[in-house]
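Q: Joint fold for the lines below.
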Amino acid sequence: MKINGRAGKQCVSQRIRIPAMVLALLCLAAAPSMAQLAPLSSDTEACISCHRMATPGIVGEWEKSQHAKMTPAKSLQLSKMERRMSATDVAENLRNYAVGCAECHTMNTKFHPEDSFDHNGFTIHTVVSPSDCNTCHPTETDEYSDNKMSQAYACLMDNETYAVMVDNTNGLDEFNGSGFHHIKADETSNADSCLACHGTIVKVTGTQTRDTVMGPMEFPTLSNWPNAGVGRINPDNTKGSCSSCHPRHQFSIEMARKPYTCAQCHKGPDVPAYKVYSVSVHGNIQKSMDKDWDYSAVPWVVGKDFTAPTCAACHSSEIVDESGNVIAKRTHRFNDRLPWRIFGLPYAHPQPIDADTSNIINKAGLGLPTELSGEMVSEFLISPAEMAKRQQTMENVCSACHTQQWIDGHFTRLQRSIETSNFMTLQATKILSTAWEEGLAQGANPFDEPLEIKWIEQWLFYGNSVRFATAMGGADYGVFADGRWVQTRNLREMADYLKFLRATKKAQDKK
Amino acid sequence: MKINGRAGKQCVSQRIRIPAMVLALLCLAAAPSMAQLAPLSSDTEACISCHRMATPGIVGEWEKSQHAKMTPAKSLQLSKMERRMSATDVAENLRNYAVGCAECHTMNTKFHPEDSFDHNGFTIHTVVSPSDCNTCHPTETDEYSDNKMSQAYACLMDNETYAVMVDNTNGLDEFNGSGFHHIKADETSNADSCLACHGTIVKVTGTQTRDTVMGPMEFPTLSNWPNAGVGRINPDNTKGSCSSCHPRHQFSIEMARKPYTCAQCHKGPDVPAYKVYSVSVHGNIQKSMDKDWDYSAVPWVVGKDFTAPTCAACHSSEIVDESGNVIAKRTHRFNDRLPWRIFGLPYAHPQPIDADTSNIINKAGLGLPTELSGEMVSEFLISPAEMAKRQQTMENVCSACHTQQWIDGHFTRLQRSIETSNFMTLQATKILSTAWEEGLAQGANPFDEPLEIKWIEQWLFYGNSVRFATAMGGADYGVFADGRWVQTRNLREMADYLKFLRATKKAQDKK
Amino acid sequence: MKINGRAGKQCVSQRIRIPAMVLALLCLAAAPSMAQLAPLSSDTEACISCHRMATPGIVGEWEKSQHAKMTPAKSLQLSKMERRMSATDVAENLRNYAVGCAECHTMNTKFHPEDSFDHNGFTIHTVVSPSDCNTCHPTETDEYSDNKMSQAYACLMDNETYAVMVDNTNGLDEFNGSGFHHIKADETSNADSCLACHGTIVKVTGTQTRDTVMGPMEFPTLSNWPNAGVGRINPDNTKGSCSSCHPRHQFSIEMARKPYTCAQCHKGPDVPAYKVYSVSVHGNIQKSMDKDWDYSAVPWVVGKDFTAPTCAACHSSEIVDESGNVIAKRTHRFNDRLPWRIFGLPYAHPQPIDADTSNIINKAGLGLPTELSGEMVSEFLISPAEMAKRQQTMENVCSACHTQQWIDGHFTRLQRSIETSNFMTLQATKILSTAWEEGLAQGANPFDEPLEIKWIEQWLFYGNSVRFATAMGGADYGVFADGRWVQTRNLREMADYLKFLRATKKAQDKK
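A: Joint structure:
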């Protein structure tokens, strides 16, 4: 039998199945004081009595959380603006207890027909999903379900165009002396790459018996686990993982408001948001001065609790002034404040209408919101009126610190940055099209040849970098670091690559 | 009428123009307590009474500042070493009030003939410039005017050689089937790219009426606004923006002493100072231990207030020991402690004599402080004696923690690093010159062809990275990350590129 | 005479040699209060009396250290788990004093026959080595001597294969019109590059007289100084520098537990551990929440003192639960918890048996732990049984917060990531081998031609990045930023490069 091997454990029961309640009593002596915690339900007490030993890290972390210190009843006594829960009431049995293990992992069994299982006398489910969080946070869950992020699995994997790109990235290439034999990407590699952020499909595929510190126990087997991607498909068929941005088990608003959370997925060359932020004045103020900020305050008072925006401040948080006037309403549909999607596909374009973008298709039959010519595929994209509305919502955030002239100047630059980077993408597309037309590259799979890869990087890395640098005021990133400099360099290298391909072909044709 | 759209505003007067004083009274009730602030002038009180609502973020931020808590009079009571202002006195009407909105935005109107305007009964100017800060901080303003950074606009844009490089980076390239048609960089793109750090030309170009939370108001139109570049050309014709490093409206010495401020412009591959610092022992100590430092102390005691240098400690700050002995005098002329300019153009060279380097020209007619052969253009550069003096000033800083042998070892390495990286730049130059001579590239514009771009990166990215890594003790950055490894790789790729160009030309000549 | 040039020094004695004790008395008046410090030995008092003035930064820093606040005797009164020293007793003359200057720099002279010298009446040595730290920390010193890091000099420089790579990186290349004349890397450049992390050879090469704030003094000349590389060869012939991770003179466990310390050497594209960590959930929690952590607690309680692992938590620290059960024992042999060495050479492989890997050689005569075909050179590598044991030790750390299914899922991915990245390295090797066979590149030096450099980057940058991203849960880094995307791109570019070399050769052969 494989055991966990920890030295010094005093109340481990191995091999012998002991009822949970008895275990609880056995372990209770070892439990440190739980002062300052809200009252725990007896079920949660039972969970903790063993898990304090089995997984001490998460029990300790949870004890630092608001969930451990508040009860729904106490939360409901707060003014609406100060409240962190959007439900106006919760069931009687939840009201006066901390939100503990049992409250999230054993309630709502009706929503978890597939993944509920017996665990020491409790019916529990491992994967807490939006249907669980919905109990206390229905507004957030609703909004998030209409956020592209919750649909991130389908947006990527159910779009044929992007699915090819995923396969090209995660699959294998076997060299055969001159070219390659492609081996399709396996599920494990996808889960470890794109889907780590986009979300995997987690479902119960069977059961297994595992040795635990409490002896052997039976558990459901979960596919593609672990995962905390933003668009995770959960065993209960809901989409999304609230713990993507509110990581287990502290679920802290402080963490979600800090830029390091967003940086988990938005730091790479494709979406260099964090890198841009870190060279912006906003990012400098945040990094330099935030030891004096209150990231946990609800509502969040600009100028008092924080003096420069983080990602959350601009895109999600409720922001008020000292008198309680609301400058921006909280939203978990992050494009509420975004007219443009500066993430080019391949051109920057108005935000898509639907959160699920997998049905978008252009005239050429590609799953793109723009034509290769740069034209917008308007039927899938929000209208100019809607864009103006969202722009205004964002400008309200800016106006907490900036004059209208400042704001106008900023957005004039963003407009120009979109135009110029789209223009430079168009030139790259012209070069690639020329190669396709001349038979120097094969457009059937537009993602696998060096010239195609350079084309992709033109928009995915450099176009995006230029636009993010402008949008978030981190200009330095938009010059040399994957910015305008590289955008020009890559374009010119593409033209030379075309010459190289032409020369090679001519030499080959001569033979 | 477009309004700002904030919900819940209680004292907004729309459409109807109400005199500022009346507005002030109307709004005063909403103002939170201003305890702990120094006495405010009645003008500043009037500003705040409305701006607490109009721009609550900056009012709140300002209230956290020393400017809000101190008066010049109180500052003058401190010992000279503890004082943050260098003026020995200020005008009667400033002496006993906090340094508030009115003190900076309404005084000195005589210096602002172009950009002063009437705003609710006050004559104000938007862009606070060194001529304003000079009132209390004349030494800093003087020193800064002799710092290359204050001249950063001219240094870049008035130097014909660099101006071409700027245009190549920010302009557009239209593909025409084989080559490119270049479209000149527009002012907006320049402001959003190079000039974001170097500074734009801000001047009044007209007036405009804007809707505000207080109703429609008339404002001057500012060109290239916003900008906080170090060499901004202000409407009053002064150069520089103190808020580049002391961001509005907290103007905190703490922020200027933290490396994140410098990182706003000094993190990219051209000047990777922050990246190098972050892998140095100094950077590690700073990041790991600075929660126990006092970044606000004046004077700044080494070993007590901080235990490893930040950018400011080595290049700008006044540093003393616990007994008050001055180890380094404060300077806002940052090359006071720098013998070499390790930022290669294209070779590392002694610091230029003048802060404005736009007149530098080499024998070949290029605006460079070195010849392409590596020779120095000595007439524009400081003498060996001056270099030795600056070296000694820097060594004094090192000696606060290091022995002379340690220091000598360090600078021996820097000397060698300058030699070797200059040598590797020279080899790249030889390859490019060969291409120019053989007609494989066109030197007329030395910045736009792939081989030329690789040459530029040889010194601008890799040579600089190697030297910064040595100079700031972040050796790891100088190996693989844009360092010696890439310096070698790029050079060898250039040689292969030359072969490719030769082969292509031969094939073309045959036709 | 060159003097240090500090203004305001009051007790500097120049040119005139004054006995240390007299100097001490002279300087004592200037010494700030030393409350809260443990009793100082009279020797340390003498050191400090002058060095508070000569090097105030390090004296101040040391005063913040545990060494200054504790005595060995007080430490020995703590429970074994709370103790930071592993010696069960120390010499009488050390027991009741702070661990000060004299305790580390003047004791153990018998171990320092080469580098001891007379300094104001004391026999001291500059370079404190593991033989000194061993006095109080013998377990740590022992473990570390069996850690690859302590052998990092030999591992790199005494392995002929890697030595060529070092020389290629740090040496110079002189362009001769078509190819290059290579100039061997000099000692100074090596010390400033690879050996900054790996460690230099520091030995006494003579003596020199230097001017100090105390007047001229004689010191031994140290080669390759300064250096704090992990495998430094010290003048006393010991290997390693404890201050690599416990930087002078605070020697803080807090710093060693923070990831910024490891980042000094593990942030570049070859070992992007810190970059991966910074986009992992662990790294996010650490950066977002660690203001509430206690990094100095001994023992370190998971869930209480910290809520997500840092580098140290997984690889080195003693971790306990709140009841004092040990989850992981402290180790300074960092591969105790590592079955695989994911740092590919060129393929990921089981950890080497010996810390000194300089004797490893494969069938082809290369100093690599794998064949170019991907086969393991098993005789130098740990057995599957040993791998399983180390895996279990690491899993114990994971199990503090994660279930076994979570852990299994994680390690399944790591296994697959090793397989796929090794596969992609193999394909790159096939391309390079083809080039070697066809005479298009010269394998004699496998590190200096562009195609070879691309091959090296395939495993050193991209293979490593993919594996580190998986191993440390920072998936985003493993996609676009030097990850799978670039792994594929580089492979395909290598195939095109092969075509280019073939075409160039054919053209040349025709002539």
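Q: Anything notable?
A: Confidence is low (pLDDT under 50) at residues 1-33 of chain B. The CA atoms of residues 486 and 497 of chain B lie 16 Å apart.
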